[in-house]
Amino acid sequence: MKRIVVVGGGAGGLELVTRLSKSLGKSEKAEIILVDRSRTHVWKPLLHEVAAGVIDKSSDGVDYRMHAVKHHYRFELGELTHINRNDKQIVLNTLKDEKGHEILPERHISYDYLVLAMGSVCNDFGTPGVKDFCFTLDSLDQAEQFHRALLNQLLRINQSEVDKTTLQVGIVGAGATGTELAAQLHHIANLAKAYGMPEMSSERLNVTIIEAGQRILPALPEKIAGSAKQALTKLGITLREGTMVSEATEEGFITSDNELIKADLMVWSAGVKAPDFLVEMDVFETNKANQILVNKYLQSTVDEYILVIGDCAGFEQEDGSWVPPRAQSAHQMASTAGKNIINMFKNKSLETFTYKDYGSLVHLSRYSTVGSLMGALSNSSMFIEGRLAKLVYVSLYNNHQFTVHGRLKGLMTLLSRKVSNIVRPKFKLH
Fold first, then answer.
1. Who has the most CB within 10 Å: 12, 90, 332, 425?
2. What digits encode the pLDDT tens for the residues 265-315?
3. Contact by Cβ (8 Å): 35, 90
4. How far apart are CA 234 and CA 230, in angstroms?
């Protein structure tokens, strides 16, 4: 029996494993293995909500091991360290607990087809102090670390009844993650008042978003950016556009003009790149963003039996642009990669990948949702906002749930989430 190994259980990886297991795993035509260093999947566009504490992985996450049992594949907890192309094996690092005790030794897993779907990480561009003093929201663990730090800071501010100290939050990067997190923090500061912190409110929160570009949301249409800027400004969030950060310190961010922007909590969400070790392995051809170069079938340029999807895939389009690192890109790549692997099994011709831009959406907590629809399907994108934009935003998450769980289970999961949202606290307190 041939073996398909997928490394990375993000939006693309988990959807691909689900598709392959349904078509090949359930009928025992192939053994499907998913590898991820986390035990739980949370849709990456929602990580800022985990960080703020408005959603919980226990109700909004997918346990890989349970999902594997129900969908006829095998889950391996671990971190990829090397790929041996000659022997068709991947190497997983030793798995240790929090105290450094070994749980599992180094493991070697053979494959017939390998799919890399390890996503992306923030690019700090070598800025001093970022690794020491800043939070990033690249993974569930990092989002939960930020949430714990946020709770501690809220408790500190709540106890400062006399001097009315404010909580200073600095966010570098005004992309979707930075702007959406800022709005959620404003919402959380007000929610805290109803959850045992009577002295806390948004009036005691100062959020500053620092963007090196000339406007926020630089990758999105200007009309979306303008509407989002208006909503954020109305909330009292400070926007520092055209401001370069040269260093992060314990006190805050130092700009290129040697100005200190003070911050108790610092988040770095500027720039995106594939993980550094993809280059350090010296196995693939890569681009400046560390992405593995792929051909029109999503096969790596050095090995036809290794496919790459999602943020870590470098797919150059006919106009010279790269497919953007977005959830919709990963979803589309997972669909094409799944078809091509099945076609390889059947010795059929492969399908060419074509990226279709269906637009972009930015959800600013309960205050506003703005975006554009249609994308490449029309000559000019259609701007939407308000309830319609929120409905479309929610539908994207719903579609992900249906792909991962199936229609019936997906519908039950969404229904369970709605019931949970009614009975559970609106703010995670632990």
1. 12
2. 999 999 899 999 999 999 999 999 999 999 999 999 999 999 999 999 999
3. yes
4. 6
